[in-house]
Design brief:
The protein contains 19 helices and no strands. Helix 2 (48-76) runs antiparallel to helix 15 (393-426). The protein is mainly alpha-helical.
Amino acid sequence: MDDNAQISSARRWATVAVGCLANLVLGIDMTALHLAIPGLVEDIGPSANQILWIADAYGFALAGFLVTMGVVGDRIGRKRLFLLGTVAFAAISLLTAYAWNAETLIAARALLGVAGATIMPSTLSISRQVFTDPGERTTAVGVGMGVGALGVGLGPVFGGLMLDHFWWGSVFLINVPLMLVACVAGALILPESRDPRPGRLDVPSVPLSILGVVGVVYAVKEAAADGPWRLQVAVGLVVGLAAGVAFIRRQSRVASPLIDVSLFRRKAFTGSVLANGFSMFALIAQSLLFAQYFQLVLGWSPLKAGLAGLPGGICAMIGGAVAAPLIGRLGRARVVALGMAVSATGFSLYTLSGAHADYLLLVAGMAPCAIGMGVAMTVTGDTILASVPKDRAGAASAISETATELGGALGMAVLGSILNGVYRSSVEAPAGTPASARGPVEDSVGSAVEAAASLPADLAGRVISAARGAYVDGMHIALLTSAGLALAAGIAALVLLRDVPKVLDEDSAAAVGSGVPSAAAGPEVALPGAAESEAAPTS
């Protein structure tokens, strides 16, 4: 640790507030772009393929650089990396807002992803440094995750407000003042910390980690978009898997690896990483399905759709807040399983919604789904941070975030394929639909609504009704699949985390992984309010 004086309680929670502000901006940026696409298509005229890259470049770069940036933060200082990331994110947001052609916009979105990769693991690992009390640490992780989820819901709201008055690039200008505030506040509040013995950076591991993650994510996204039997999917998957295998083998051989593969022998760490990935796999259904359901089925505006999703972010924050006391009563494995079961109930309740708006039914599903996921992902996120040495917290955070990104990509592919498959098998173009419109109607609800605009009013109404009904059928199957996945993740957590103690630090986590009994592992141990034996971080 680099600093010398113990951090006060007020400053610890101010540190959380700084991280939450940065996470809020990242969440807003993820979804605000979707509303800007029609305007930027009209202004800079990207091709269909370029539109896909504009949407995907951010996620590819973010996923690819998370591990590298987590390790860099452990080496140069997590506060320093956070400050560099916030300044870079603000500056690149300006470039994105004023991009003059599609190529510039794609490059800017990729650079935003790299900047985001410097921020995400830094905020989590700094929390690991400043909170030595287990209950406070868990609450801090939960608040951060809840605010990130709230940001995803606020993206369409802020984006819609900006687009009502300004041009498409204005949605990216939201990032600039908020990130600059986070930078100034971070410089004044955040403590510095780093690995005191980092060793040399293994440069060959960096491109291997990037190729491994990006290759797999690219293959999954391409398979979801146009089917798995194309050359691009095979090439991406082969490159990603080959690079991933080479990366893992190299980590076990070099003196200073990017990732300490021995961490995966700790059941607390491995079980929580897998649970996070499966959680995001199931949770991605909401953003995937409801973005279209709210607007194309219910006919809501983007702003109204964004406002409709806000209770989910609020409920996720509530789930994060109640996770810490639940750990003290039930233990980590049972809390994760409980959260997944509550979330599965929410996914199932969503199926009560149909082609006509009933917002109370939507909230009845949204609340338990978000609370359950908030509880589960707070506990798994806290377990990941607590089960590794503090000096490697940045790398551990990056592994957790990467697993989440991969889980989201797989969820988008699998659940999107289920939705599209059910839609195409169940939709029937009404009698009298011209041949030129049948293809779009049978392809997706979006293309069906677009095709209906050129048809006579009566026929258009029947086409839209058929498309919306088929979409709802597919949505219900995808949501039930998500419910099943959430239950499976809960059962897996009961098995993988059953011996993980309520009060967790790196020593007890290592004992669980090696089969050595831990003094804290007994069921009688309550979550204490006193600090752990580790020294508090300083400023």
